[in-house]
């Protein structure tokens, strides 16, 4: 892996623009739109990487080398696209590790992973082993440290996202959590609070490692210092009222611990954008488009109203859609992602976007 | 009045109360079919409609289905004794490589809520298991769920296996799951795609009536 400036031409400008957008977002001010091209090389790493190929007991070096080689290839390929992308490294283990850090095993498939629910009764979380002692907690830190060592001196920031307390509780308890909302609401709050504390401890340990290796670099802690990235995927299974009652206080606890929240959910949960964006100090919400669900790009007016200034990351199919919605998007903060067929097309649309911005 | 109460309490997920009222209705000599159709199925249909319109969400559907099952526990012997038949039979599963089961479970509950007998084969189910199950249980419907873009192609693998086994024409194949679309369903030769559990049960009923 080379130093970060080998993979991005406009590092300072990209960081400055992002920082302005997120500062404005937290302050509730709009007016920022940034562009992200998505060339095939950005996702090829996920197609080429086979999680079942590695022995995570004995073969971590091979895993790390292969992962970093894929990331390097991807960064190098898109070097000349001057969009809002900022290179970062971090473990890719599917999503099983997002809950197995508490307890349990990970079931690996080629391109993803799962962990199995472990709480037969909701109160069983009280009998879980102390946080930090599970196999995958230690393994994740080991993998992270290996990646950090191998990229030390490059200045490339380390990045890691987490499950929200509800997502983590769902992974640990399985579908039974939905019955628990009705059968034992007090215990749901206790479990969610446990999940918030678990996430805080795990993130703190990961951030400390990142600080050890990247703390003195210019951009190395860009994704971690004062920030937390969390998914609220399971929230789209419950109502806005249930979200506010059960989830919001515990998600807020995690955000408050770190400073600013960078959230993720799906367009299935469009009705929850207001609830998530009205949590304190949320700067960003990545709203992934689901098949068979409303497309966020078609609901900009609604999103501007619901977002409270929070920067909403959405995708679109064509550049014309960006042109058509540009003025409306300026009322809030948006990061818009356009899949492109090639690097050349990525460069072309990034240039067109800059022209649109400067009109 | 009591049937309306059953429907209302079912919608609120009040399993114990539904159970008591179903027994009370039987004691009042209301026919089992009437209790099923005007109490339990009616309540579940209302919940299904609200779910489709984002008025209620997964927890509400699950507790309502649980209440329906508690009522059915009491009602089932009386239904059997009265000679009432199920509307039809379905096999349901999440396809191989996929461990997600909430969508499958919701469809199962909605089908049962319409009086359809459902054989649940679970998750991560391969084509051979489905073929065997069709030969053994002779269902009217085969319902295949997939949550991942990487596993949705296994719906086609299963349909192809049914064709190869010479039993494709014996069943209606319904597909669903977050990444599945009508276009994909057409492409793989499924008979129906539905976007949500309530629509799945409506489509299933329509097939069974035809």
Describe the structure in your own words.
The complex is a heterodimer of chains A (359) and B (210). The mean pLDDT of chain A is 95. Chain A starts with 10 loop residues before the first helix and ends with a helix. Chain A has helices spanning 11-27, 40-48, 60-77, 97-100, 135-150, 165-173, 176-183, 185-214, 240-258, 273-277, 300-307, 319-329, 343-358; strands spanning 32-38, 106-108, 113-115, 162-163, 227-231, 260-266, 282-288, 311-315, 333-339. Chain A has a single domain, classed as TIM Barrel. In chain A, strands 1-9-8-7-6-5-4 form a seven-stranded parallel beta sheet. A two-stranded antiparallel sheet of chain A has the order 2-3. Chain A is an alpha/beta fold and 359 residues long. Chain A is globular, with a radius of gyration of 20 Å. In chain A, strand 7, helix 11 (300-307) and strand 8 form a beta-alpha-beta unit. Chain B is an alpha/beta fold and 210 residues long. Chain B has two domains: 2-81, Orthogonal Bundle (Methyltransferase, Methionine Synthase (B12-binding Domains), Chain A, domain 1); 88-209, Cobalamin-binding domain (Rossmann fold). Chain B is 59% helix and 11% strand. The radius of gyration of chain B is 17 Å and the shape is globular. The chains are: A alpha/beta (359), B alpha/beta (210). The A-B interface holds A 107, 109-112, 114, 175, 178-179, 181-182, 237-239, 242, 268, 271, 290-292 and B 13, 54, 56-60, 62-63, 66, 97, 99, 101-102, 105, 148, 150, 178-181, 195.
Would you kindly provide a brief summary of this structure?
By secondary structure, chain A is α/β, with parallel strands linked by helices. Helix content of chain A is 47%, strand content 13%. Chain A has a 7-stranded parallel β-sheet with strand order 1-9-8-7-6-5-4. A two-stranded antiparallel sheet of chain A has the order 2-3.
